Amino acid sequence: MAITASKAELLDKVQQGYVQFEDLLAPLSKEQMTTPNVNSTWSIKDNIAHLTVWQNYLLSRLRGVIDGSMSEPEFLSLPGTEDEQNEQVYQQNKDRPLADVLADFRSSYQSVLATIQSMSEESLNGTFPWSTSDRQVWPLIVGNTYEHYAEHSAIIQHWLESVRGQA
């Protein structure tokens, strides 16, 4: 039997995760946000661009569910493994201005939130119309929102602590 998620609880966790991530970013300077080597060569800005791409991936899937698409929506047409795709996304975004990356992240989040709000609890607990598996929709939301924010928050916090320790 499939595990179900409450739409209200899901929305609450998505919103809480986003607020916690924004609270982490709020006191940071532009210099802190753009300093490389937070994780590998990535800066905090690059982590934000990465989160944006995966929020947009989620958004494409949710819109496909809403539309009842029988074929999986195209998203990243990048070859390779997920790590290789993430590297390509990094290369495409590393020179973008911080303000643009932040604006895209926030806009993408608002679109994801509005899309989840527009969906029924039944569709959130359902499966993808193009899938032959029993993979439910809601775990994709969890993995590309608050769990993903928490993962990158931990990376950023670890880096901030290491930088403070060197000062």
SSE ordering: HHHHHHHH
Structural class, please?
mainly alpha
How many structural domains in the coordinates? 1
CATH architecture: Up-down Bundle
Classified in CATH, the superfamily is: dinb family like domain
What is the beta-strand fraction? Answer: under 5%
Largest sheet: none
Share of helix, binned: 55-70%
By CATH reckoning, the class would read Mainly Alpha
- Number of contiguous helices: 8
Task: Name the overall outline.
Answer: globular
N-to-C CA distance: 53 Å
Output mean pLDDT.
Answer: 94
> Which runs of at least 5 residues are low in confidence (pLDDT < 50)?
none
Radius of gyration: 17 Å
The CATH topology annotation reads as Four Helix Bundle (Hemerythrin (Met), subunit A)
Based on DSSP secondary structure assignment, what is the total number of beta strands?
0
Summarize the structure.
This protein is mainly α.
SSE blueprint and pairings:
Elements (H helix, E strand, L loop, with lengths): L6 H19 L4 H5 L9 H24 L14 H12 L4 H21 L2 H5 L12 H7 L1 H21 L1
Describe the structure.
Pfam families: DUF1706. This is ClbS/DfsB family four-helix bundle protein. It comes from Reticulibacter mediterranei. With 167 residues, the chain is mostly helical. The protein has a single domain, classed as Up-down Bundle (Four Helix Bundle (Hemerythrin (Met), subunit A)). 68% of the residues lie in helices and 0% in strands. The protein contains 8 helices and no strands. The chain has helices at residues 7-25, 30-34, 44-67, 82-93, 98-118, 121-125, 138-144, 146-166. α1 (7-25) packs antiparallel against α5 and α1 (7-25) runs parallel beside α8. It starts with 6 loop residues before the first helix and ends with a helix. The model has no long low-confidence stretch (mean pLDDT 94).
